[in-house]
Amino acid sequence: MTTAHLVDNLIERQLQQWPLARDNYAALEHVALRAVTLSGSEVILQHNPARRRSSAARVDAASLAERPCFLCRENQPDEQEHIAWRETYKIQINPYPIFPRHLTIASLSHTPQLLFPPERLNHLLDLAEELPEWVLFYNGPRAGASAPDHMHFQAACAGYMPLPEQALNPALWPEQALLESTDDGFIGFTRQLGRPLFLIRCERKELAGFYLARLQLAMRMALDHEPEPMQNLLCWQTGEYTNVAVLPRVKHRPDCFGEETGQMLLSPGAVDMAGLWCIARQTDFDALTAERIQSLYDELCPDNAAIAAIVDKFYQT
């Protein structure tokens, strides 16, 4: 049985047998949505109060050391099942979903959220190939991860985050937008969607992995980020193509982050960067405008000089 079929069966079982998950997925059908237009493309706002624990999570070293890790088996509910993947990861449904089908793919061992050793890049590409109806995504440890102490990816059913479809618009990738191309694919850069975006699109998964590894090294060198660059990644299949969107970051949370008067409880990760803003508080949901979202993207992402440095380092690798 394929990984995709095993996941389908897992979801069906869990929604039948686990009341917490069943109730939270049912509640998701009633969340409020609102669309705004940003740089000619659509951004979706989702008012999802159940995500408050993730948005407000304390991720400093002291707080992480004090709380039990919710991705470790011994701290999870008895009802939560998993599928083992390559004896390295466990695939589980996320009990606090953003999407009608939402997975967490966590390391079986408690190890930091990092894409290194390098084979984890290949794990991301392989998972996307085995789950062709899903979008895999990764939050860097300082770029949206609420569990930076435990390595994990997540996956969303395709069609709910605007960016994957928007990024494949051929108009974004004229010759001058490409950093490198072959008959098998390309890596390119654009800001036309309102935030800096590197896109890798290749027929050969191996070429996608090669470009991705080079970009990771270039970002580390240019932004002086160790042990890995601040970033959000999305990876998905379309037909024979492997697609990887890399959204570089320079900041974990915006200056307005907080729960006090005048602040906003926003801790953007890959989903928000991909154009689906998951917002826990009604006041923040009501207050966000296209202009405010653009200002948040501008605050969180590298400026033109930093991007130029990344591109320069890419050509040196």
Could you walk me through the main structural features you see in this protein, from its secondary elements to its overall organization?
The chain has eleven helices and 13 strands. The strands form two sheets. A ten-stranded antiparallel beta sheet has the order 3-4-5-7-6-11-12-10-9-8. It has a three-stranded mixed beta sheet with strand order 1-2-13. By secondary structure, it is α+β, with helices and mostly antiparallel strands. It has helices at residues 3-17, 19-28, 52-55, 61-66, 119-130, 162-167, 205-223, 270-273, 282-287, 290-300, 304-316, and strands at 32-38, 41-47, 83-85, 89-93, 102-107, 134-139, 152-157, 178-182, 185-190, 197-202, 231-238, 241-248, 276-279. It is globular, with a radius of gyration of 19 Å. The protein has a single domain (3-51, 82-316), classed as ATP adenylyltransferase (HIT family, subunit A, 2-Layer Sandwich), CATH 3.30.428.70.
Please describe the structure with a list of short key phrases separated by commas or semicolons.
single chain, 317 residues, alpha+beta, HIT family, subunit A, ten-stranded antiparallel β-sheet, three-stranded mixed β-sheet, 11 helices, 13 strands, globular
Q: Quick summary of this structure?
A:
The protein is of the alpha+beta class and 317 residues long. The chain is built from 11 helices and 13 strands. A hairpin with a 2-residue loop joins β8 (178-182) and β9.
